[in-house]
Structure formats: structure tokens, C-alpha cells
Specification:
Blueprint: H1 2-8, H2 16-25, H3 40-143, H4 152-264
Length: about 270
């Protein structure tokens, strides 16, 4: 009576020959559905059918897992590429800043040398002018003739007065020359200080900009990590939902197949 029933049961999950081989290997029946009301042949049919459905479900679950793992790997590779781009961009920006800073410092240094040259040139011109004025003033005094008709004492007095004036001219010129020297030192120090201050500002501005670039890169990396974490979580959730849907779908398949078998292979 069992064999005619086998001909009535048809399902893509059931192969009579393979089912018998499977039953002989796995005689211990398991599952939530009771087979107590099935005939012996029905138990064989159900055991094999159940195994085929289980294998199909397992294959689809594996396919979903592989898809999830592949998606996760793609997300990680994309995040890694993004981090590399952020690092490369930061390096490029900082290299440009360093080059600009070096160029600015070279420009400041050239200006400093030019300023020092002009300061020293002006100082030399001022000293030359001072000496020429001194020479001219002395020559003018010496050109003033002392009358020969004056008495010896008066002539001596006039000569002494002239010498005093010349001495004062020379003393004043010497004092002025000292002032010019002091001013030269001050102007040189001022030019050097201004240049040093300008270089320090370039260094400080460059440092601040590099720090800002680093903070921006860190924020981008943090966002990249957050996006990766969120995307992986979404992929895992999608896998979880797909698996739950497969569980639900195959629970129905199990029940449908069991009900068909139970209707055709009831225990006599």
C-alpha cells in the first residue's frame, strides 16, 4: 500500500531513490512536527524531504551571508580608500604650506638684506656729507684773512678764536658722527628684528594652518569611521531581516510539505 502512495506524492524536494538511501543512513527522526501519525513510508518521505528543504534553506542563508560579507568587505575597502585620500590630501596641503612658508621667509630675508644695504648706504652718505660740510666750514674759516696790521697780541687772539671755532666744528662733527653711528646700529637692529618677527609670524601662521588641516582631516576620518560602522550595521541588519524572512518562508514550506505528506501517508 505504501508504494502506490509514493507515486502520488510529487515535490521538488523529494526523490524516492535518494530518499530511501538517506533514510537508511538517518533512521533517527527529529523535528517539531510529530511523525507518529505517519506510515513508515511516510516517515521516510518526510525525513528525506525535510533534509532537502533544510539544505536548500541552508544554501540560501549561506548566499545571504556571503552577500553580507562581500558588502562588508566592499564597505571596508571603500573606507580604507577614503582614509588614504584624506591622508594624501592632508600631506599635499601641508607640503604646499611648507613650500609657501619657505618662499615667504626667503622673501623676508631678501628684504632684510636690501634694507640693511640701504641703511648702511645712507649712513655712509650721511657721514660723507658731514665730513664735506666740516671741511667746507673749516676752509671758510681759514679763508678769513687776519689783517697784518693788527698787533701781535691781537693776531694771536684772532688765530686762537679761529682755532677754537675749528675745534668746535670738529667736536660737533664728531658728536654728529657718533649719533649717525648709533642710529645706524638702531636701524640695523630694527631691520633684523622686523625680519625675525615676520619670519616668526609666517611660522606661527603655517603651524596654525597645519593644525587646522589636521583637525579637519581627523574630523573626516571620524566621519568615515562612523559611516563605515553605520553601513556595516545596516548590512548586518539587512542580513538578519533576510534570514528571519527565510526562516518564516521555510517554516511555511516545511509545514506545507509535511501536510501534503501527512495527507498521503497517514498511518493505517
Amino acid at each position: 500500500m505504501d508504494k502506490p502512495e509514493l507515486r502520488h506524492y510529487a515535490s521538488k524536494y523529494y526523490d524516492p531513490v535518494k530518499a530511501h538511501e538517506y533514510y537508511m543512513r538517518n533512521r533517527e527522526l527529529k523535528g517539531r512536527r510529530s511523525t507518529s501519525k505517519l506510515s513508515d513510508e511516510g516517515k521516510k518521505v518526510w525525513q528525506y524531504t525535510k533534509q532537502q528543504i533544510t539544505e536548500e534553506k541552508k544554501s540560501k542563508v549561506e548566499a545571504e551571508k556571503e552577500a553580507k560579507d562581500q558588502k562588508t568587505e566592499e564597505l571596508r575597502e571603500k573606507a580604507s580608500a577614503t582614509r588614504e585620500r584624506i591622508t594624501a590630501k592632508l600631506k599635499e596641503l601641508n607640503e604646499k604650506l611648507s613650500k609657501k612658508a619657505n618662499a615667504d621667509k626667503e622673501s623676508i630675508e631678501k628684504k632684510r638684506e636690501s634694507d640693511l644695504e640701504n641703511i648702511r648706504k645712507k649712513a655712509v652718505e650721511d657721514v660723507d656729507k658731514l665730513e664735506k660740510n666740516l671741511t667746507s666750514a673749516i676752509e671758510k674759516l681759514m679763508a678769513e684773512e687776519i689783517p697784518k696790521s693788527l698787533s701781535k697780541e691781537e693776531r694771536a687772539k684772532r688765530i686762537a678764536e679761529r682755532n677754537e671755532k675749528i675745534a668746535k666744528l670738529r667736536s660737533d662733527a664728531s658728536a654728529e658722527k657718533n649719533k649717525l653711528g648709533e642710529q645706524l646700529v638702531k636701524d640695523e637692529e630694527s631691520a633684523k628684528t622686523d625680519a625675525a618677527s615676520s619670519k616668526e609670524k609666517v611660522s606661527a601662521d603655517t603651524k596654525n594652518q597645519k593644525e587646522a588641516n589636521s583637525k579637519s582631516a581627523a574630523a573626516e576620518r571620524k566621519q568615515c569611521a562612523a559611516d563605515l560602522k553605520s553601513s556595516i550595521a545596516a548590512a548586518r541588519e539587512a542580513y538578519k531581516v533576510a534570514k528571519e524572512n527565510l526562516d518564516s518562508d521555510y517554516e511555511e514550506i516545511f509545514q506545507q510539505e509535511f501536510d501534503k505528506i501527512a495527507s498521503q501517508y497517514a498511518k493505517p
